[in-house]
Amino acid sequence: MRKLFVLLFFVSILNGYAQRSKNIFSKDPIINLENFQKSRIYYGFYLGFNSYDFKIDYKEVTPDILVKKTTGFNVGIVADLKLHEYVNLRFEPGLYYTKRDLNYPNNPNFTKSSDALREVNSTYIHFPLILKFSSLRTGNIRPYALGGLSATLNLSSNSKSLEDNVDGRFRVKAWTPNYELGLGIDLFSEYFIFSPSIRGVFGINDELIRDKNTSSPWTGNIESMKTRAIFINFTFH
């Protein structure tokens, strides 16, 4: 029901936007918000979806841990500082919800089927500092590329827990650094700018906290575990 509500919400926004912005893609559009991009600082907000994964490297060759991804939800704000006519510095803090299931196939150490499954529920506070490189505006359309660094605080990391996988507790580090790359497009309507974008997020450091037992069937063979994610955001200025 929550996913259906979010989908209907976006459909209603896009439908209203389309009704107000028929001239964006016309042959000779009326130029909307012509002086908006001349502002030194401006603000906005975004809503969107995410798909988180793990990139796992192993010490020895064994059956891969299977990561089942789900679609999560993003919400945040945007502060944009104009550095150059085509370059902006953006700070985009946001709250991200996601869930991943880790399945350990064909492991003889597990006596119960529940041992082969670990649910990784995550609530992230995401702090990206991004450079936005815009192309020349054509009518009411302006494509752009994004790149930058971010830090993520995982409120559900269990990093301070003394329990580990023996007790059913999967642990990761609270803070992780990332780099981000993406593409988007600014669509100028009469009253606001609508900017859909897609972005890849790549964790830099290993974020797994190992179990106390160095031969743990859950963490013992993992060399590193790093976040990989795709964000689809809809930004409004």
Features:
Beta-barrel_OMP_2, 10 strands, 237 residues, 1 helix, mainly beta, Porin, Outer membrane protein beta-barrel domain-containing protein, single chain, 10-stranded antiparallel β-sheet
Structure characterization notes:
- The protein is mainly beta and 237 residues long.
- It is 8% helix and 52% strand.
- Strands 1, 2, 3, 4, 5, 6, 7, 8, 9 and 10 form a ten-stranded antiparallel sheet that branches.
- It starts with a helix and ends with a strand.
- The relative contact order is 0.19.
Query: Which structural class should the secondary elements be placed in?
Result: mainly beta
CATH class placement: Mainly Beta
Quote the distance from N terminus to C terminus: 28 Å
Unreliable stretches:
4-9
Number of domains: 1
Strand segment count: 10
**What percent of residues are in strands?**
over 45%
- Write the H/E string, N to C: HEEEEEEEEEE
Mean pLDDT, rounded to whole units?
A: 86
Rg (CA only): 21 Å
CATH fold call: Porin
Pfam families: OMP_b-brl_2
Organism: Flavobacterium weaverense
Protein name: Outer membrane protein beta-barrel domain-containing protein
Short note summarizing the structure:
With 237 residues, the chain is mainly beta. It has one helix at 2-20; strands at 41-58, 66-69, 71-84, 87-91, 94-103, 117-134, 141-154, 175-188, 193-203, 222-236. The model is unreliable at 4-9 (pLDDT under 50).
